[in-house]
């Protein structure tokens, strides 16, 4: 079967599927809180078991729907990988899915989580649909056709005029603590966060950015950058299912997506674990938009400590 490079049918399918999955996620959350006063077992294991059950249920629905509608496409999913399936990215169209991104938020009833459906072709993100069912936020994009909020508002929210960003010190930066809380990782992150937030008169290498934000969902962080609500987002330790959909949306909103050491995302970088995205930025008198983005990234990479995963 010939590949449709426009992926319009995949986009429409993914939007419908994300809404179906979102209904399942909301239902599971409601049941958790309805049973909150039932003293059966309030241990952490019980809470994690609920999240796992919902993750698996959503991914099963998504995976089966994709196999039925697009049997020629490959599939990579977080839960499938956790169950032992090989996650191999090739040049073929590949759906890459996180059934619930922001599982800690989901478990605690914080409404900042989503389903993320991405499509990669020739190892590059070409389509993204990210849906937060609690706040009714649906982000979508396919390559060459722009990024949209709720299918009606073009991204970034300031479209067609991206906002300026003079320096990293003027930025609101998304960072995350992640699941690896080992001493070495915590020290690396602590050093980075201190330099990004610290007063340069007292912190060596301090940037004193406007603020740091840790919201708990990689996919929604990408959407916030795409919308222009956050200036950049950096995390080490993400997986392809965390970022593919968001990367497609961000690129279509004029953002630039980077991998390890601040190089532009390409090739097999989706299967790596180092990700950085910078929003669309207005050009200056002496720089193009992309040159400003690259300059901001260079400044950022000089302030953070990279490490292996």
From TrEMBL:
Q: Which biological process annotations from GO are given for this protein?
A: inositol biosynthetic process; signal transduction
Which Enzyme Commission numbers does its entry carry?
3.1.3.25
Q: InterPro entries recorded for this chain? A: IMPase (IPR033942), Inositol_monoP_metal-BS (IPR020583), Inositol_monophosphatase-like (IPR000760)
Record carries keyword Manganese: no
Pfam families given in the database record: Inositol_P
Where is Mg(2+) annotated to bind? 78, 98, 100-101, 242
Q: What metabolic or biological pathway is this protein involved in?
A: Polyol metabolism; myo-inositol biosynthesis; myo-inositol from D-glucose 6-phosphate: step 2/2
**A GO term for molecular function:** inositol monophosphate 1-phosphatase activity
Q: Say yes or no: keyword Magnesium present.
A: yes
Which cofactor(s) are needed, names only? Mg(2+)
Keywords linked to the UniProt accession: Hydrolase, Magnesium, Metal-binding
The reaction(s) catalysed by this protein are:
a myo-inositol phosphate + H2O = myo-inositol + phosphate
Classification via PANTHER family: INOSITOL MONOPHOSPHATASE (PTHR20854), INOSITOL-1-MONOPHOSPHATASE-RELATED (PTHR20854:SF4)
What's the family?
Belongs to the inositol monophosphatase superfamily.
* Official protein name in the record: Inositol-1-monophosphatase
Q: Which organism is it from?
A: Mixia osmundae (strain CBS 9802 / IAM 14324 / JCM 22182 / KY 12970)
């Amino acid at each position: 079967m010939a590949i449709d490079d426009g992926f319009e049918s995949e986009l429409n399918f993914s939007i419908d599927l994300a809404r179906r999955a979102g209904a399942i996620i909301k239902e599971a959350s409601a049941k958790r809180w309805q049973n909150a006063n039932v003293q059966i077992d309030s241990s952490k294991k019980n809470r994690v078991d609920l999240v796992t059950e919902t993750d698996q249920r959503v991914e099963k629905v998504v995976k089966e729907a994709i196999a039925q509608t697009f049997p020629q496409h490959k599939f990579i999913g977080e839960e499938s990988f956790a169950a032992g399936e090989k996650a191999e990215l090739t040049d073929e169209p590949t759906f890459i899915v996180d059934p619930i991104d922001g599982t800690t938020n989901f478990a605690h009833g914080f409404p900042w989580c989503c389903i993320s459906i991405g499509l990669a072709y020739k190892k590059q993100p070409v389509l993204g649909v990210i849906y937060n069912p609690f706040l009714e936020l649906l982000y979508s994009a396919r390559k060459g056709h722009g990024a949209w909020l709720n299918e009606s508002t073009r991204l970034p929210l300031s479209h067609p005029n991206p906002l300026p960003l003079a320096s990293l010190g003027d930025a609101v930066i998304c960072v995350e603590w992640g699941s690896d809380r080992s001493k070495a990782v915590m020290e690396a992150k602590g050093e980075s966060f201190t330099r990004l937030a610290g007063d340069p008169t007292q912190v060596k290498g301090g940037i004193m950015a406007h603020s740091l934000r840790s919201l708990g969902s990689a996919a929604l962080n990408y959407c916030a950058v795409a919308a222009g609500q956050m200036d950049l987002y950096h995390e080490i330790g993400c997986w392809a299912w965390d970022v593919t959909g968001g990367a497609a949306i961000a690129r279509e909103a004029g953002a630039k997506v980077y991998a390890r050491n601040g190089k532009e995302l390409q090739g097999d970088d989706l299967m790596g674990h180092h990700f950085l995205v910078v929003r669309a930025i207005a050009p200056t008198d002496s720089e193009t938009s992309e040159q400003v983005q690259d300059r901001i990234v260079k400044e950022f990479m000089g302030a953070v400590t990279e490490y292996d995963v």
